[in-house]
């Protein structure tokens, strides 16, 4: 019976979707009618005079005392997921149907219409009336190229209503491919599409396009009203740079020739005139001369193209990808939004938790099943007689994720759903887990529910509510549990990742031809889905880069990155240092780089650390690379070493010292450029949060700028006590007393002989 109930709930959801367009039109002439699903006895056989169940069900409602003759009021007939039909009924008609001997149950169909938006733009502080959005014209005229798995062009995020004309400098085009008709899909928003699939075993069709749709809609999706997420939510979607143009360069991550194809995609993007490149793909364990992203991105930097790339989703040491200094490497952070659920026990106590279950359901008095002990919710220990039709309380103290066998077992045994007690309720579940009603609750809440289940004979869950959204969740941001940490295994003296951006529970465009999740044995499609990963964080930085490029077209890629990094923040909304999502443990710049992106402050950083391409070449000359390796990185272009730059001399916005021997001192040199105004400005230095084991001297302590674009140089002497922790850090900050604070992390790493 519980399985049938879930099927009914699924049908309610589908009907909500199908009926949403008529909820404000067709139902208006029948304000006394409400929509119901009527379940009939499955043992009742269709009378032989009726050739179909639909005709039989129609005859039933036409035989009511107040017969239903309006075809628009009768919706659907069901014969497989349940026996019954859906119909719009008055209270009197419903009451009469409920007296039928064959009547089993009636389920009201509700259209929730809850607001769900791409909250990331609000969390980033982007506003229509002030700050970076209006001052950059929302990224107008900037072209973002995405090297990814393709794009689903039918998404409303890629409509071109209100978009400016395609820039005349654009040299790209839209190629035809499977399920991609350039004349139908390309417009003033999606202005280019190329395919690099020669090593692929697929045609590059729809099974490959969804991820690219996620990232491109996040960075530059147009304003969309009436967004639906998993069929229940209505709201607004928008990318970070909604008036920027998009070009997709499709590669197949399963291709036998992926490195060559990624390099070709970047090469084509450069040739066609993109301003920004966003990469949510990378290659682990490849040195600069073997990494196509490193090689292609340096060519892009030479052409003034900003490159943002995901840091990767393996938090263990030495897994970070896309670490060269000419790439802005992006880690993922959480937001202050939580997708919540709640339940009320039969004693009246309300419990709050988290869930992705996508239906708006109302339940009454579900039996609560609980068996004490850690085996109480193991799939092999459950049986149908115990759990069918009940809400199961699981106190396995889930640490990492729920068992792969648990949900299928509960579904198979007819359980209605489960309450999961965990140390990390906000991030235990994934959308694909929630094919049945699941709610994750904290240990403290679990204690009260467990006591209630033990002490109360006939304990029940009075009601459940899903689809709630909480704004202002604390602490936020946090470093995502999956986000790759530094240091970079090849060059630990360059702090990576560079910066954090929202990458957890991001609402992004989805292809309706791909299943988003399973529900009641059915695949649920959606226009927009909730996704997490550094691949969702990187396009946020690409979008911010597009805004900054529009506001400051003269800025180099390094200047844009510097503006982001030196204005980032490293405290959460409780005023504490950033912590880890799962454990709450304090993090360091090895985990979050310079901090979390603050787009509005990045618009006016005051000072920047600029780097020219020749500086990168001189940096390569200072590493243990052969001329042949450097030649391959630079793709055979004419190059020369004007000098050999050690990592401490590269004009990077962060300062990292690596100690592998008894030497405990290092000298840094940096140059700052005034971009804050034409008048005289004086910046004074401070070193904040330095632990006793770090001794820092900055010379000079004051920098005076008399005009715009003037430069000043300073030096930092760092000493670290022997025997100090493996990671020490503080912040170097230059302030002008007029609102500009130019912040850089100083990190001291002590590594063993294996670089760990």
Helical element count? 18
> How would a textbook summarize the main sheet?
7 strands, parallel
Q: Would you tell me the structural class of the helices and strands?
A: alpha/beta
What is the arithmetic mean of pLDDT?
A: 83
Helix content bin: 10-25%
Distance between the termini: 56 Å
Shape: globular
Please provide the count of β strands.
Answer: 33
Q: Tell me the strand order in the biggest sheet.
A: 6-9-5-10-11-12-20
User: DSSP strand (E) fraction?
Assistant: 25-35%
Radius of gyration: 29 Å
Organism: Linum tenue
Keywords: Hydrolase, Protease, Secreted, Serine protease, Signal
Subcellular location: Secreted
Family: Belongs to the peptidase S8 family.
List the helices and strands and how they pair.
Blueprint: H1 2-19, E1 34-40, H2 53-62, E2 74-78, E3 84-89, H3 91-97, E4 103-108, H4 120-123, H5 132-135, E5 143-148, H6 182-185, E6 190-196, H7 210-220, E7 224-227, E8 235-237, E9 245-251, H8 258-272, E10 276-279, H9 292-302, E11 306-310, E12 328-333, E13 337-345, E14 350-354, E15 366-369, H10 384-387, E16 391-398, H11 406-412, E17 417-422, E18 438-441, H12 443-455, E19 460-471, E20 499-502, E21 506-509, E22 517-519, E23 522-524, E24 528-531, H13 534-551, H14 557-566, H15 589-592, H16 599-602, E25 607-608, H17 613-621, H18 627-633, E26 655-659, E27 665-674, E28 681-688, E29 694-699, E30 702-705, E31 711-720, E32 727-735, E33 741-750
Helix pairs in contact: 7-13, 8-9
Active site: 148 (charge relay system), 211 (charge relay system), 535 (charge relay system)
GO molecular function, one term: serine-type endopeptidase activity
Protein name: Subtilisin-like protease SBT1.7
